[in-house]
């Protein structure tokens, strides 16, 4: 069976689609067969990323390793039986289509609570939650006191992941490996950064996730989106010398893939 990676939280602007595209492309470039789904049916940032890539490669006559992006199939409402949910059926049909030919299926979730996102989390073998290094984003996981030091209790997203874990346990499936990524961390040793680190480590022990570094804020990510490219594609499109920022970003991606500890993945880029 394909290993399902779900990239999700319930807040926009955390870098989910950028993270999804780079993880999917990195796995494809390492020789794995990767299927991809975008559950944000309105904005479809990840879907647009995949479309831009296909279009750019076709126009330039290039063949680069890529994930196979798949739209959720339409379901005839008349065929839905009492008690069934049409969104559940659409997601199940998409996963069933991709699974026979894929090593990994990556699912990018919207930055809000939806039925599709809820069901996708219950399918996750690995859950990746990008989080900006801010207590505004941390509030999605847990509530803290005014000093940002004492955790008062879990928040809405953590409760949703807990419910997904319960569903998997009832179905006899392996537990979700939950990895929270600290995105946009500054290089300076700021008080907020230190407090965030302590709060995440404390919460990780309480509700069961691993903490790993994500991506710093870099202009290159915004520049690559219109062509659907990733950091790993630069040399293939003629960039002979990477600048210091690009080299650092590649290292961040390498460390991220290592931290995910996915099955049968040997980081070799």
What does the model show?
This protein has 269 residues and is an alpha/beta fold. The chain has one domain: P-loop containing nucleotide triphosphate hydrolases (Rossmann fold, 3-Layer(aba) Sandwich). The protein is 41% helix and 16% strand. The protein has nine helices and nine strands. It has helices at residues 16-29, 45-60, 86-98, 115-123, 135-138, 156-170, 191-207, 219-224, 244-260, and strands at 3-7, 34-38, 68-69, 104-108, 126-132, 142-144, 151-154, 177-183, 210-213. The chain has a seven-stranded parallel sheet with strand order 3-2-4-1-5-8-9, with helices on both faces. The chain has a two-stranded antiparallel ribbon with strand order 6-7. Helix 1 (16-29) crosses helix 2 and helix 4 packs across helix 6. It starts with a strand and ends in a 9-residue tail after the last helix. The mean pLDDT is 92. This is ParA-like protein. It comes from Shimia thalassica. Pfam families: MipZ.
Task: Tell me briefly what this model is.
The protein is an alpha/beta fold and 269 residues long. It is built from 9 helices and 9 strands. The two termini are 25 Å apart.
Output the strand order for the largest sheet: 3-2-4-1-5-8-9
How many individual domains? 1
Main beta-sheet strand count, sense and barrel state: 7 strands, parallel
Q: Which sequence of SSEs, written as H and E, runs from N to C?
A: EHEHEHEHEHEEHEHEHH
> Which CATH architecture would you pick?
3-Layer(aba) Sandwich
Radius of gyration: 19 Å
Distance between the termini: 25 Å
Organism: Shimia thalassica
Protein name: ParA-like protein
